[in-house]
Each structure stands twice: as C-alpha cells, then as structure tokens.
Amino acid sequence: MKRTTVWVATAAALTGLAACTSSGSSEAPEGERTASAPAALPALRTAERSTQRAETARVRSTTVMGTQLSLTADGVLAWRDGLSGSLTIDYTGGTAAETMRGLGVTSMEARYLSDAYYARMGDTFAAKTGGKHWLRYAYDDLKTLGGGAGLADQMRSTTPDQSVRLLLDSGDVRELGRETVDGQAATHYAGTVRMEDVTDTELRRRLQDAKVTAETVDIWINEKNLLVKKVEKTSTTNGRVTQTAHYSDYGVKVAVQKPPAADTEDFKALLSQSSTNPT
Length: 279
What we know:
Layout: H1 3-21, H2 37-54, E1 56-65, E2 69-78, E3 84-93, H3 95-102, E4 107-112, E5 116-120, H4 123-128, E6 134-138, H5 139-144, H6 148-157, H7 160-168, E7 174-181, E8 184-194, H8 201-209, E9 212-222, E10 227-236, E11 239-248, E12 264-266, H9 267-276
Parallel strand pairs: 6-12
Antiparallel strand pairs: 1-2, 1-11, 2-3, 3-4, 4-5, 5-6, 7-8, 8-9, 9-10, 10-11
Helix pairs in contact: 1-3, 1-9, 2-7, 6-8
C-alpha cells in the first residue's frame, strides 16, 4: 500500500477523537451578551469540577475540516485514569472520506485505551494490509511522527471538562443566557481563545502543536453543572475546523477491551512496510 494512502487513512482515522474533544463559537451580537467575564467565571469553575468528577459520559458529535473531511461520531468516553472509550465513526464527506471509501471504509469502530488508540478499518483495508482489521496507534509512536506530538497529547488528555477549562482561558468569556439543549435547561457561555490569553502551560503547548491561531468556544451547562454541548470553531494554519459535541448519561459504564492481537497491525510497522514497498 502506498505511503500517502496510509497517511490519508491515518489522518481520517485519528480525526475521530477530535470530533468529541473540541468546540465552537457564538453568533450572538455583542449587545446580546448579558454577563461580564468575572460574573461567569465562578459558574464555569464549578462546571469544570463537576464534569471532571463525573468521569464518564455518552457523546455524539460532528466534525467538518473544510473540504478535506466531515464525520460523525457516537459512543462513550471515560476519563477517570486517562482517556478510554469506544466510538463509531462515520465518514460523511470530503476528499479524505473519498479516499477512505476507496479503501472500503465508510464507518469505523475506534477504541481508546491507556497505551494506544485502535481503529477497525474493515475487510477491504485488511486485505491490503496483511489481513488484519485493526490498526494500533501507540501514543508514544505518534510523538515521533511529523505533527504527532500534539495529537498524542490531545488524545490522552482532552476530556469534556477541558472544554470548560479552555473557555476559562478566554479573554472575553460571556454568559449568553438560558436555552434548551437536548430537552433540558442549560446556560450558554461563549468566548474567543487566543494564544496570548492562554495561561495553562499544558493547554498552551497543545494548541501550539495543533497550529491553532484562534478558537471560538461555546458551551452549554445544565442545572447539574455538567457540560451538555460544545461548539468550537478553530482557525489553524491548515484551515478552519468546526466541531460540535453533545454529552449525556454522565456516569455511564465504560468497559473497553483491547482488540485481538492476532487481528491487529501496528501502524508504525505498517508505515515502515509502505515505505519499503510503495506499490
């Protein structure tokens, strides 16, 4: 399999997690904003702690990366001891999705464990890669790849509570009022995050690695102080990314098993094979 094809498949597969761990901006005019940043901060800090303590949730999300890729994701995530979880990712459009379809992949199961991310690529892809259906992306291996350091950190450290933390680093966070989200009352907060505003060292490094120049963030917090929706619109050096995620069933049981070793190919090994055998 050609190295470039492996990379496209990798990018499309890895984007699935980002669909659940990013957010967006408000379209409300400045005049409609009803609270100043100081008034909003205590409520956001409470929401950050409550969401962090919940430890698990169900998530459904959409991601659009310009004309390159659009996808949806649905599943469960846990963040009690690092990130773990399982998602079903459907590729709905874009040039990368077309390449994935050529490999027989329109939908993919993704599993997140402490050491690696696993993607089930399907029968057609397996036939091209030695008959194994699962690809394993070790987080440590991702760090050695071009642009992989930020992605590895994001996959292991980005959880719903960090979306609230991201907004806390906004220089203009505002409360926009009460709205109904997924049938429940929620308070809408929004702000714009710029690199110069970010004080959290780890978060700042992750944004720099992802080549983020600015990010607008909207979040909705329910009456239990839990994040129920987020929308992020991110400007990067590679273009615009819009991501929306809905969270529910906090405390849901999350049990993720490692795929069978006999049916798993290591991405680093596959990439090496594609380099020596480009056809």
